[in-house]
């Protein structure tokens, strides 16, 4: 589903990746880990082609970063749900409108939009907030809204960048539980995190570490002691 082949990337003169390679299969649940500033967010941006490799390539589904036409990038992104680290909710629009935004962009009709938004809001336990403004919600509720927006269009890939970073441990654990449930239903998931306690609790899942400008699978009993 995703192939990262001999990836090289530098940012502001700093080399982030050098000959990095990895494969993520359909249905995988991947924790992407590494030290702060090592390149987790950069790798996610390379996957949804917000950034392009300097050398090597990233292949997602039928899209190849080395050959893709810029006009095809919106088509690629419609297959990916993205949960940003800072949520990126629109504070001048209701929760309903925030969740519905990807559907408006694609061109769904009003009834289909209403149906999908209510369905995903119900699944994530935020139906009562649909008429609220994002700034009136708790951090956990805002995160659920961000996740709802990311999955309302039934993406084949869900990317979440530090989804528990600003949440207390209990709320963060519930967010990870939601992401795992989404994955069980068939959506491939890549979760970038520095919360090694959560990774340790779910060490049966795939753990991909960024280290020395490359990507490594980590298979150990206690990830906390190895990062």
Which helices and strands, and how do they pair?
Blueprint: E1 2-11, E2 14-24, E3 29-33, H1 40-47, E4 55-60, E5 63-64, H2 73-77, E6 80-83, H3 95-106, H4 110-123, H5 139-151, E7 157-161, H6 169-184, E8 188-192, H7 196-201, E9 206-211, E10 214-218
Helix pairs in contact: 3-4, 3-5, 5-6
Order of adjacent strands in the largest pleated sheet: 6-7-8-3-9-10
State the end-to-end distance: 27 Å
The Cα radius of gyration reads 17 Å
Which word captures the global form?
globular
* Residues in helices, as a percent range: 25-40%
Number of helices: 7
**Tell me about the biggest sheet?**
6 strands, mixed
Structural class: alpha/beta
Beta-strand content = 25-35%
Give a count of the beta strands, DSSP E runs of length 2 or more: 10
Query: Helix and strand succession?
Result: EEEHEEHEHHHEHEHEE
Poorly predicted segments: 223-227
Chain-averaged pLDDT: 94
Characterization of the model:
This protein is of the alpha/beta class. The chain has helices spanning 40-47, 73-77, 95-106, 110-123, 139-151, 169-184, 196-201, and strands at 2-11, 14-24, 29-33, 55-60, 63-64, 80-83, 157-161, 188-192, 206-211, 214-218. Helices cover 33% and strands 26% of the residues. Helix 5 (139-151) runs parallel beside helix 6 (169-184).
Overview features:
single chain, 227 residues, alpha/beta, six-stranded mixed β-sheet, 7 helices, disordered C terminus
Quick summary:
The protein has seven helices and ten strands. It has helices at residues 40-47, 73-77, 95-106, 110-123, 139-151, 169-184, 196-201; strands at 2-11, 14-24, 29-33, 55-60, 63-64, 80-83, 157-161, 188-192, 206-211, 214-218.
